[in-house]
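Notes from hallway chat w/ T.B., transcribed later so I don't forget. T.B. wanted the structure written out for a chain they're using in a teaching module, and asked if we could keep both sequence and structure tokens in one place. Agreed to drop them here.
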Amino acid sequence: MNAARDTGFPRADAEHDFLRARRRQVLSRLANWLRREPDDVNIMLPFDEVVDSLGYVSERRIGLRVIPLNSIVGSVDRGRDFDRRFRPTSGRVRERWERLALAARRGEHIPPIEVYRVGDLHFVIDGHHRVSVAYALGLETIEAAVTEVHTKLNPKGIRYRGDLIVKDYRRLFLSRVPLSGEARAAIVVSDPWDYAHLGEHVEAWGFRLMQSEGKFLDRATIARRWYEEEYLPVVEMMRQAELVGDRTEAEAYMWVAGERYRLIRQHRWDDEVIEALRARRR
């Protein structure tokens, strides 16, 4: 990030800083439109929606930290005044923005901002203008009072607002199919609706298992046994038969399970089923 130019006239430089930041915001919006980027590509992530999608667990204050500016991806309540890179979206914030930029250029102390931390992501509670000015001045870090929020799901993979839909459906899936450890990490699909379909599939599998064994099984037991007795053996057969393709293994499992029932109206797995599915793919 290039440092802002210093002409020796701090007030004029602060004014130019704001105009440059606004111009970059407008050009970025135009470029996104020309590239036909998704509408949410340049919008801040809303903290409440992110935490709701991931599942709130707890929070704790961890004090002052120096954090990377590019780790700040969202806001608690000021998403309209700045874009994803904290460039002003209108002239409404200009007076306060230039006052802070002037203070920073004069070397005056700028108080730390206040943020929530979710994984490696930060969301501004207080200090949006300070973050925006820091970006405009070419800084790479900023001092912040951090409150760490723990969630049921890891926020890894969240880039845009649309990604929250996948996380939300995954959270719901794991509440229905409470996998843990390696099994939890292994089940990944791209389409959020696939989590809903897979959840129904596992619940149906668990119901048939309870009927077969004549006893009640809780969700955790069904999830573990489905993964060990159904999912892993089927995925291994699919690998050997080269039926996975460019999908995730969970997506391939869903496809092959659906095709199996359409072809033979059975819930069994054997070489005959795999061969029928291989022929179906051709």
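Follow-up for T.B.: DSSP finds ten helices and six strands in the chain. Might be a good example for the class.
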